[in-house]
Amino acid sequence: MSRIVYVNGEYLPEEEAKVSIFDRGFLFADAVYEVTSVLGGKLIDFDGHAARLQRSLGELDMANPIEIEDLRQVHRELVTRNDIDEGMIYLQISRGADNDRDFVFPDAETVPSSIVLFTQSKPLTQAPAAKTGLKVISIEDIRWGRRDIKTVQLLYPSMGKMMAKKAGADDAWMVEDGEVTEGTSNNAYIVKDGRIITRHLGREILHGITRAAVLRFAREAQMQVEERAFTIEEAQQADEAFITSASAFVMPVVEIDGKTLGDGAPGPVAQRLREIYIEESRNTAS
Ligand code: PDD
């Protein structure tokens, strides 16, 4: 059955949804996005994603084509129309389609931003990797300098996943000036002597909505949290490691550049945080 998607104010079967070949998202990666997860047919942390979207748009001087409350309704409508129990909603806003290719931004008054949303049905709570853990490799972080803005410039992260796949791993952690920034599409953490260590916020990483929730839950559960950079060598000596994202929730990492962590099974802190995150999200999704 084909999905119903949302394109510039219309709900359409996916085969009928079209964007212009002049769309700046397509030509220049001049677009921002959000991925919001769905649990039990409800949205996890919509307000957090909406706030980050507003910030991304603001940083790029891009007009928002939709009021946040209307956007919430579009999300809910897509969940209903596609009967999504668990999965994600992808949202992309681009600087619209001028009638030619021009590096100069078009006037937002005459060229409105374009907006696309679609659903992805996926088992999130029962993801098989939660039981086995992920293997990651390290790669150099050669992305641009504003990774705090959630743009669709995802070629390098996509290449990173392919490098991991080729190496027999699941994902890559990116390293800049000797320190881990983040995963290709997730934030990275290690655990040593009960302390949870994850890179501090800045322009070098995306400010994960899941990261914010997980660190809040960890602190509420009296766990020690250190927001600072760490190296791959430190990560390889850690007791455990994990990643977070809207689509992975909390996912254990059991191997880094071929070095097995602990006994090679998902660690207790990652497992506990995953349980807490799923439980809290079920309670607060709306
Ligand atoms: N990725 N860092 C990067 C580079 C990301 O692309 C993501 C999310 C995160 C985690 O952010 P959040 O917790 O808000 O999902 C961190 C999404 C899921 C994606 O591209 O599919």
Structural write-up:
There is one protein chain. The chain has helices at 24-28, 46-59, 68-81, 129-132, 155-166, 209-220, 232-236, 268-284, and strands at 4-7, 10-13, 31-39, 42-43, 87-94, 114-121, 134-140, 171-176, 179-183, 187-192, 195-198, 224-227, 240-245, 249-256, 259-260. With 286 residues, the chain is of the alpha+beta class. The chain has 2 domains: 4-121, Aminotransferase class 4, branched-chain amino acid transferase, N-terminal domain (D-amino Acid Aminotransferase, Chain A, domain 1, 2-Layer Sandwich), CATH 3.30.470; 129-284, D-amino Acid Aminotransferase, Chain A, domain 2 (Alpha-Beta Barrel). The strands form 2 sheets. Strands 7, 8, 9, 10, 11, 12, 13, 14 and 15 form a 9-stranded mixed beta sheet that branches. Strand 3 (31-39) and strand 4 form a beta hairpin. N-(5'-phosphopyridoxyl)-D-alanine (PDD) is lined by residues 35, 182, 185-187, 206, 208-211, 244-247.
What's a concise summary of this model?
The protein contains 8 helices and 15 strands.
